[in-house]
């Protein structure tokens, strides 16, 4: 492995945010006991915000590389539980936020953050999963722990055309659930049904449910949107039904009443994949690799290189991404970057 590698680097110069693909050396990387050759990363909403002017201050320690996910091969580690050549995954723990992230051909991290890749999962498809898929699996585990099961009734999935939503639909379908998928892109109805959705509804139908308590429609829900959508859907969940909340793409406010909680005993469950304990991560990753096969992952996977990242970031912020976008880090070449990254 050469000491020189390519990385997307964000910095502030003359009070202006800049991002470009650069040559880097190991000494440029933050501290950590494990060096990894990155093969793939993924594009998440947070990454789009980071690339587009560091909106929301996603990147908190400039200069650094964006990318909250990475999958690659260990090149060296002082942790004896890892060996040269081990294939590993990293998500969460501030990676790509406070610690330089996965849009780099080489990364250096703490081994405590790593999960060994399940044997029946490729590095490529581990990034189809990424933070989004891990979050989806953690949501389902929370619903299961709260007593949900297929015979209880239909499960609602909001943001169904996005990463968390896509993989939630696929997983729930594999587990035998009937699923109502909510999307703002009704042109994707056939696609969503192809990956497992039973029914498709427009998000406007949820936004119009403004009564404190509506007739029961769903046994439980996975919500990656927040805002009015989450506020309203709670009113139509069955008695003792759980709602797993994991995102805020539609807003951070929750404007509701206690009526669904005290009349029907609805359970609102927060899901945090960033600080999730390693033991739970290992279980979630294994279940993900067991439930969904490589052909099914390909249905929701778009592969790009870092050359394409600025346009893809605009697409994800504009709600134009379907499924999951992964980045082939090793395929990125140093040409025309001034054009690609000018904002």
Q: What would you say this structure looks like, in words?
A:
The chain folds into two domains: about 5-115 and about 300-340, Quinone Oxidoreductase, Chain A, domain 1, CATH 3.90.180; about 130-270, Rossmann fold (3-Layer(aba) Sandwich). It has eleven helices and 15 strands. Strands 3, 4, 5, 6, 7, 14 and 15 form a seven-stranded mixed β-sheet that branches. A six-stranded parallel β-sheet has the order 10-9-8-11-12-13, sandwiched between helices. A two-stranded antiparallel ribbon has the order 1-2. Residues about 335-343 have low confidence and may be disordered. Strand 12, helix 7 and strand 13 form a beta-alpha-beta unit. With about 350 residues, the chain is an alpha/beta fold. It is globular and about 60 Å long.
Poorly predicted parts: 334-343
Helicity, in percent?
A: 25-40%
Going by CATH, the homologous superfamily of the largest domain would be: Medium-chain alcohol dehydrogenases, catalytic domain
Quaternary assembly: single chain
Overall pLDDT score = 93
User: What order do the helices and strands follow?
Assistant: EEEHEEEEHEHEHEHEHEHEHHEHEH
Strand content range: 15-25%
- Helix-and-strand structural type: alpha/beta
Number of continuous helical runs: 11
| End-to-end Cα distance | 33 Å
Question: How many domain units?
Answer: 2
Give structural attributes.
Quinone Oxidoreductase, Chain A, domain 1, Rossmann fold, 2 domains, six-stranded parallel sheet, 11 helices, 29% helix, disordered C terminus
């Amino acid at each position: 492995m050469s000491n020189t590698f390519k990385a997307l680097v964000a910095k502030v110069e003359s009070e202006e945010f800049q991002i470009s693909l650069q040559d880097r050396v190991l000494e440029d990387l933050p501290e950590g006991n494990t060096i990894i050759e990155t093969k793939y990363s993924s594009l998440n909403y947070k990454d789009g915000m980071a690339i587009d002017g560091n909106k929301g201050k996603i990147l908190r320690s400039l200069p650094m590389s964006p990318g909250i996910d990475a999958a690659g091969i260990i090149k060296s580690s002082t942790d004896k539980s890892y060996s040269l050549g081990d294939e590993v995954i990293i998500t969460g723990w501030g990676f790509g936020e406070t610690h330089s992230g996965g849009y780099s051909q080489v990364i250096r991290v703490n081994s405590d953050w790593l999960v060994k890749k399940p044997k029946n999962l490729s590095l490529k498809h581990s990034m189809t999963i990424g933070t989004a898929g891990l979050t989806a699996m953690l949501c389902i585990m929370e619903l299961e722990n709260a007593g949900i099961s297929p015979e209880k009734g239909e499960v609602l999935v909001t943001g169904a055309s996005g990463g968390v939503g896509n993989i939630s639909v696929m997983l729930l379908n594999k587990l035998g659930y009937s699923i109502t998928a909510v999307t703002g892109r009704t042109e994707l109805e056939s696609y969503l049904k192809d990956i497992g959705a039973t029914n498709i509804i427009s998000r406007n139908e949820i936004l119009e449910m403004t009564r404190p308590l509506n007739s029961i429609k769903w046994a439980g829900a996975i919500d990656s949107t927040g805002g009015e959508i989450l506020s309203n859907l709670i009113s139509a969940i069955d008695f003792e039904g759980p709602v797993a909340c994991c995102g805020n793409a539609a807003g951070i406010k929750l404007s509701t009443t206690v009526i669904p909680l005290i009349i029907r005993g609805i359970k609102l469950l927060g899901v945090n994949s960033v600080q999730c304990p390693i033991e739970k991560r290992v279980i979630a990753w294994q279940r993900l690799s067991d439930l969904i096969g490589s052909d099914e992952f390909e249905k929701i996977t778009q592969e790009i290189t870092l050359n394409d990242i600025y346009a893809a970031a605009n697409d994800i912020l504009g709600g134009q991404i379907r499924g999951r976008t992964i980045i082939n880090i090793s395929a990125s070449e140093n040409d025309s970057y001034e054009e690609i990254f000018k904002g």
